[in-house]
Each structure stands twice: as C-alpha cells, then as structure tokens.
Amino acid sequence: MTTSGTVFSAAPSAAGYLYQARLALALCLRHAYGDAGIEVAVERLDDVSFETDGEARELLQTKHHLRRTANLGDLSPDLWKTLRIWSQLALEDPNLPNRTRLVLVTTGLARPDDATWLLRPHRGTGEPSVDNARTAAELLTAAAESSENQALQPAFKAFLSLTPRMRASLLSAVQVLDAQPLLTELDPIIEDQLKMAVPRGSTERARELLEGWWWPRICQALVENPPGTVSILEMENRIDEIRETLQRNALIADQEFAAPPEADLAAYEAYGFVRQLKAIGIGGNRIESAKRDFYRAFSQRSRWAREHVVFDGEISRFETILLEEWEPRFNAMCDEHGTTDPDSPMLRQAGQDVYHWVETDARFPFRTLVKRFLNVGSPHAGQRAPTRLASRLRQTLPKG
C-alpha cells in the first residue's frame, strides 16, 4: 500500500489502464449503427484496437497524465515509445500504414514547433497532410540521429531502421490527438454520443447503464487468451435494451433509496408536515421516515422535471389524484369529530388513522410506477413548491 503523493504511487499507472478501457467505449460509440463487422479490443494488438475479421483498421496508443503538460516535443518519451511499437510493426509489414490508421491519443499538449503538431488532424480533411508527414519524418529523424538519450535508443533504432520513404509512409498514417479529456472528463463525451440513441434528458442515466455493462464485458475480454474482442453489435444490442428501459413510459425511480443529508433532515423540523405529524402524536421514528420519504419524493420529482422525462402537467395530475383520494377521508374525519375538543385523544387518534392509511394503503401510480416513497412523500413535497395539494394540507396545521 502506498501513501498518496509519494513517488511510489501506482495511481498514474492505474488511471492509464482505466483510461484505455473507458476511451475504448467512447470511441466504440462512433461506430454504433454503422459497420456491424467492427470489433474493439484493449491490450490485444495495441492499447486499443478496432478490427474487422481479425485485421486492424485502427491502432491506438493512449498516454494519460494526471496533469496536462506540453510534453510532446521531438524527444518526448511518450512519442518515442509509441513510434518504437509502430516502427517494428511497419518493418514486419510494410503495407500496414496503407490500410491501418495509427492514432496517438494523449492528454499531453503538442507545441507548434514539434513534429507532433504537424501530425494533428488537418482542420479541413480531419487527416494529417502528406507534406506535414514528410516534414515530421525529417524532424524526428534529426532528433533520433542527434540525441544521446540512452533510454530512448531502442526507439530511435527501430525508427531509423526504416527507410526514409517508409518513415514518411508510417507517419502519413499517424494521427496525434493531443489535449484529450482526462479519465474523469469522459462522461460528457460518452453522453454526447448517446444523445441520438436514447430519449431526451436520459443520456446521463444511459451512460451509467452502458458503463455498468461495459466494465464486466471488457474485463471478460481481457482475461481471455489471447485477449478477446467486443463486437459493435453487442454494444448496439445493449444500447437498444437501455433505450427500451428509458422510454418515456418507463420512468426510473433512481431516488428510491437516496439517503437525505443530515442538514436537510434537521431543517425539516421547521416544515409544516413535521408539525402536523407531531400534533397528532406520531412517534419519532415515523417522523424520521416521513422526512426521508419527503426528501426522496421531492428529489425524484425535481430530477424528472429537470431531465424533461415527465409530460407537462403530469406532476400536477399525480398530486390531484393524491388530494382527491385523501380529501374524502379527511372530510369524513372532520364530520365525525367536528365538535370534539381539539385536545381530545380521540381527535389525535383519528388523525393517526388517516396518516396510517397514507403510510400503508395509499398506492397510486405515477404513470407506470407505483412507489411507496412517492405516495407518502409527495403530500409533504408541496412544502417547498406551493401547490393545490400543499395549500389544502396546510389548512390542517394546528394553530399557534
């Protein structure tokens, strides 16, 4: 076990491996609903590879740094470790650059005077230019021939073992994607790719569900011998399942087991529903449960509204159902005890009976969902946002 911040920390290496797997998912989504024959792998032919029938279409080297720095100079270890691998592949198979794209994905930064800057995608075509590849080859050849860096000598040797024409050919297949998102910044990239595949407002939840499938699946591929692949068709099938789950008639109650912050629980002591419950003699544990249901119902309804997964007026209609089911019971209690002394135990018991019905029997659907916390917490949730239901319930507050 290492101490945070020491030179022995394995965190950068661990983040690098996680980055490979998560980046593979983000890049997979580019191919969704396109070429069904594409497969992706991690640590198979390269850090990440895209293949068709076992042949590499795209090989990616990934370099993840916890902090972005301008570290892609002509003697950059990241660059030369990558070029060593690709130079050896090109030496074994000179036609590789003609059929395979070679991509260096890095969180580092290229500088305008560096070869890596020339190998960034051209704004117009999205590909490096032939002239830039030739110039980059000349710069890197000069760097390899003049450098005395012993650690990089094997990489220099591999690159210089190629003929000048082969070096230019190799670099014409290379793309350098610098300043890429960090491991923790891939969420919006994945979600943006999912926008057209899932209902509006559900991309965050879709990403969570997709990653929940992806991590066990890519781990399974990694432990195969040799490492296996994940087909685009597999991913498409999973996205289709997620889309069905997230359809507008299939609301997800993801706040059902949310834990309220202690500060919120303390603040609820001043809320009207807590005063009501105490006035009819409800015990402390049931009040804590009421606070929890209130928090969950309010959070859930707010999230649905924020993500635009509920129809206009749908929350109001649900409140109307709750109100119209509660009112006859409340009115009957008022008729029976209209002349009862306000301090009478009978009146408190009658109030407890009505609340017992709310806790145990009031179960009405919010679209297709029938959830206890929505039915019990929603009458209280109006305390934050004035509604017809809240106004009616506030009439039952004790005076003073």
Automatic annotation (TrEMBL):
Residues 273-379 form the ABC-three component systems C-terminal domain. Residues 379-400 are annotated as: Disordered. This is ABC-three component systems C-terminal domain-containing protein. It comes from Mesorhizobium ciceri.
